[in-house]
Design brief:
Helix 1 packs across helix 4. This protein is of the alpha/beta class and about 375 residues long. It is globular. Helix content is about 40%, strand content about 15%.
Length: about 375
């Protein structure tokens, strides 16, 4: 399965050796844990529970534990729930251990990435087709955005880090390291593919020019100011019509690249299908189109060699004809969608939790395709 992680997309030079890791801890973990437990608001939690339909004695996996808002509601929804909670961030792992103390014998905290999950589950004796429900709440957590030292937020000045794995892999490169070594062509690709940034060429050129003047971009404010100087005539608005910083998409692109999020999500969707029972429920919450596209194409069976097809199914050649059985064998899916259309937060929820404004919920039931 290691080869699967290299499927989407490939770059040259710096991309060859980046496996991505995290920040040495320069902030109080206890303070962050306490703050998150008090302030975290899980997104679309009622819709998540309605899709998962937890029952007494069932087993679930929360693939992105974060601050544990969804996990706690799952545990409270039915007696004797067994819950495996996974997160790559050591701060989240600390919160998970506290939740395990509150629900003794029901919660198993797991520290690792999606690609590490099979080994972690094997150590607990969990086999394929044995899980009743799996939840992905993707994207960056509030605790990562709110701590300046993590380097995720353009609005908080701190070191340009962006690694999610805490002190687990201190030798792995930061966002600042990427900007110091990546070539211009690859940086344009990163910004376009991962950030969907229209000004990718201008921003990449500005980064190269800063490098030629021996200016190393080491803080979030330095990168934010550089991007703002390039996009000076452009005003950007979010879905609530509020002004957003012109570097927001650049930060998103670097974060996704540094943490290998696309490949990890692709791998995570494959792992979820392997471990769910037939009839088990999968629920995903995505926060940008790249994540949602990966989830959607896995659910629809638009996957080639364990990676999503770069083209949607609507792009077809009308001059070609294939036998129906051949088409079904190539584009089969072991998922049955619970909702025909994607679900989004209500106006009321967005007003109380604006950070959830971009959420898209997709849910599916695992089935067995007749041709498999």
């Amino acid at each position: 399965m290691t080869a699967i992680l290299r499927k989407i997309p490939k770059f040259k030079n710096i991309c060859h050796y980046i496996h991505f890791g995290i920040l040495t801890r320069t902030f109080s973990q206890k303070e962050v844990v306490k703050k998150e437990e008090l302030l975290h608001i899980p997104v679309m939690v009622n819709e998540v529970l309605e899709c998962l339909q937890p029952e007494a004695g069932q087993t679930f996996i929360d693939m992105t534990f974060g601050a544990g808002g969804h996990s706690q509601r799952i545990l409270e929804s039915a007696p004797d729930i067994k819950l495996f909670v996974l997160d790559r961030d050591p701060v989240s792992y600390s919160i998970a251990r506290r939740l395990a103390d509150r629900f003794p014998g029901q919660v198993e905290p797991l520290l690792g990435r999606f690609s590490e999950l099979p080994v972690l589950l094997k150590s607990h004796g969990i086999r394929h087709s044995s899980i009743d429900g799996i939840l992905f709440d993707l994207g960056c957590s509030s605790m990562q955005f709110d701590v300046a030292e993590r380097g995720f937020s353009v609005s908080k000045d701190g070191p340009l880090d962006m690694r999610m794995d805490g002190g687990r892999f201190p030798e792995e490169p930061t966002a600042a390291d990427v900007l110091a070594k990546v070539d211009e062509v690859d940086l344009v690709k990163i910004l376009r593919v991962y950030g969907e940034e229209k000004q990718a060429k201008k921003i990449a050129r500005a980064v190269m020019e800063a490098r030629y003047t021996f200016k190393k971009l080491e803080t979030t404010s330095e990168l934010g100011d550089l991007v703002a100087s390039v996009c000076v005539d452009e005003e950007r608005l979010d879905k609530l019509q509020r002004r957003v910083h012109s570097a927001t998409k650049t930060f998103q692109a670097l974060r996704i690249f540094v943490n290998n999020e696309v490949n990890e999500l692709n791998y995570g969707m494959i792992v979820a299908e392997k471990y769910l029972k037939v009839g088990g429920k999968l629920v995903t919450l995505t926060f940008h189109s790249l994540e949602d596209r990966i989830v959607k194409r896995h659910l629809l069976g638009n996957v080639i060699d364990n990676a999503i097809n770069p083209l949607p199914l609507k792009y077809t050649n009308v001059s070609l004809w294939y036998d129906r059985n051949e088409v079904d064998s190539l584009l089969h899916s072991n998922w049955k969608l619970i909702h025909k259309h994607v679900l989004t937060p209500s106006v009321e929820e967005i007003s109380t939790n604006p950070r959830g404004r971009s959420a898209k919920l997709r849910a599916a039931t695992k089935v067995i395709h007749p041709n498999v």
